[in-house]
Amino acid sequence: MSEKQRNAVDLSHHLSEFAKTLEGRPPPGSNVKDVCRLIFLSTEYFPIESITVEYLKPSAFPLKPTDAVPHGTVLGWIANVLTGKAADKIIHDWVGRVHKPAYNDWKTLIDVGSSSAWMTTISILLNPGDSFICDRYAYNAALLQGRARGMHAVAVATDMDGLSAVDLERVLAGWDEKARGFKRPRVIYTQGGIQNPTGLLITAQRKKDIYDVAVRYDLIIVEDDPYYFQQASAPYGSRTGPKKQTDEEWLDNLVPSFLRFDYEGRVIRLDTFSKTIGPGGRLGYYTGPPLILEKLAAFHQGFINFPSGIAQAVIGELLHRFETEGFIRWLRGLTAQYEMRRNWTIDALYKALDVRPKDDWSRALTAYAPSNGQMSEKFTKTASLMSFVPPDGGMFMWFNIHLHNHPRYKALARQTSPAAAKNQLSTELWTAIYDAGVTFRRGELFAVEDDEERAKAGEEDVFLRASFSSGPREEFGEGDGYIRHRAY
Ligand SMILES: Cc1ncc(COP(=O)(O)O)c(C=O)c1O
């Protein structure tokens, strides 16, 4: 933190009607001046080998009451993880070390994971009927929560560098409240690191461009970023392989988050331990300007309370033992595991299909039926089956299935409608893949626009998201020609 940096600008006009009813009072036992207080894989990689818990006997307290306290030391230790001064600083120091926010008075606050953190964040910022901006395909649970609260998701175009700052500005500048039926969005929902569902990164330059638009239009950026540390060390197929670097250099070379560009305190970052330690911990943390974090703390105090003390004890103790260096080393090793799995997945695709560069200028690849392959439907030899961009990291792959080349698509679309044809063929495809032992998430789940809107916009294809986070190597297509993933 530099003395030259300034404090957060006043964002009180962004608070929802609900937030105004919340008293910005610190939760009991916490110190909102340094709000961080409470200290948390659907995968196979967990840093906890075993947990031993010893319970008191039901008869621990005699029926004739006594003032003796059984096992006070153990209970005291759990309480220390929650309230000890050192624990308090762990998260704040970590965020300062990793993200280096560009203003002075940023705070952190422990929460119960990012799903709940997004729910609380929209509750204190948006009223029912308000809107938020996101990619045309965005994390499904975030969309679901917003819609359930009567909020509108507004789609902005995306390219391989992330959400388009140019389209963002176009949408904001041309906002017609009457035609849209609701006010101009004040919030952007995005992921700063690897994105769900696309598996791609927003480049540093693009983040800066988006941030500049946010300043010009007085927007708040909510950066929900579970996969920040899972940035692969090299693109798929890179000949040079991972760079030789120390763990500290590895951390410093990650593409920075939106926080690094945040000189006005208009980014609310949601971190979680779900993808770095384990999803069952239900532990994460917010970073943002003091006013917003006070409101979030008040929300927690009234409606959620704080994360489980047991989860905090287990994970807090792990962080104490690992210390910063150990945790960076753990993250780096974890990322290397996922990178290997990404490479297995794409290797398997190359093995099963005829995969070629889509064009001369992008990283996208197109897959065709292999010349010796057997297809149940008759495709022309030159018809592509799908395209995809090798993920920049994370645990997902996003496939653009070329339904427009399906032999039955055009006739079906004529008989019914393009949206109905898409729906029928994508259901058939998903079912056939499922019957072959592979589960994907259908792209429709992540779509901001409905079937008709997407068809009207000329989108003929469908998307599928695969997860490569678990399963043995043999299931990644070795031997039987299938890519077997367990989707999350
Ligand atoms: C973008 C995004 N946000 C949030 C979550 C959920 O995080 P948590 O387990 O902390 O609720 C996920 C998990 O899949 C995710 O992909």
Q: Would you kindly provide a brief summary of this structure?
A:
The chain contains 14 helices and 15 strands. With 488 residues, the protein is α/β, with parallel strands linked by helices.
Write the layout of secondary structure elements.
Elements: H1 17-21, H2 72-83, H3 85-99, E1 107-111, H4 114-125, E2 131-135, H5 140-148, E3 152-156, E4 158-159, E5 162-163, H6 165-173, H7 177-180, E6 187-190, H8 204-216, E7 220-224, H9 247-252, E8 267-272, E9 284-288, H10 290-304, H11 309-352, E10 354-357, E11 365-368, E12 384-388, E13 396-401, H12 409-415, H13 418-435, E14 441-442, H14 451-456, E15 462-467
Parallel strand pairs: 2-3, 2-6, 6-7, 7-8
Antiparallel strand pairs: 1-9, 4-5, 8-9, 10-11, 11-12, 12-13, 13-15, 14-15
The structure holds pyridoxal-5'-phosphate.
Keywords:
single chain, 488 residues, alpha/beta, Aspartate Aminotransferase, domain 2, Aspartate Aminotransferase, domain 1, 2 domains, seven-stranded mixed beta sheet, six-stranded antiparallel beta sheet, 14 helices, binds pyridoxal-5'-phosphate
